[in-house]
Every structure is written in structure tokens, then in C-alpha cells.
Amino acid sequence: MAMITDAEDFFTRGCGRCGRFATPDCSVHTWIDGLNALRRICLDMGLNETAKWGHPTYMHAGRNIAIFGAFRSDFRLSFMTPGLLKDTEGVLEPQGPNSPTPGMIRFT
Q1: Residues whose CB falls within 8 Å of the CB of residue 2, separated by 6 or more in sequence, listed in order
Q2: CATH assignment of the domain containing 67
Q3: For the chain, what is the total number of helices (H) and then of strands (E)?
């Protein structure tokens, strides 16, 4: 199994990182409406879309800004340098128990 290298493949087939790739059971299909809405927002903001690590990654001026993830229980928008963000509404969560700064928005 090989990770995708084209962001468009993520939205139609999945990331390629597990055995559910290109099957109806892929988590991307569960969350496709929300993922497409996030995609439109990122593209409308002028970010460049690419695929890295098997997931759509959004860049500006050659720098990684955000990456999408789709899981069985949720989908996520993760920011690469969350310390630069002002989260006045408190919507960001830590990506894991050892994350020093909250940098992810989880959608269910």
C-alpha cells in the first residue's frame, strides 16, 4: 500500500495509509462533506494545496500551514505552527497528550 501523492486522490480514495484505502469503508467517505467544506475555505483563502504524508496539506509562501486528517470517529484540521495562532474562542485542542500547544480542530 502506498500513500497518496495527489491531494485530489485523498478526497476520492483516501490517504492510502491503511487497508481501507479506496474502499467504501475509508473514513474520508464518512466525512467527505465536511472535508470538502474545509478544502473550499483553504483554497478560497489562497492557500496552495498539495499532498504530504498521505494527506491534503495547505501551504503559503512555501510553508506548510495546515493538514487534514480523517478518522473513524472524527476529521481534523491541524495547524503546523499553532504557537503563532491566537485562539480567543478556545476551539483548538492539543493533538496529543504531549503536545505543548493546542493546534487542532476536531469535527464530529
Answers
A1: 16
A2: 3.90.1150
A3: 3, 5
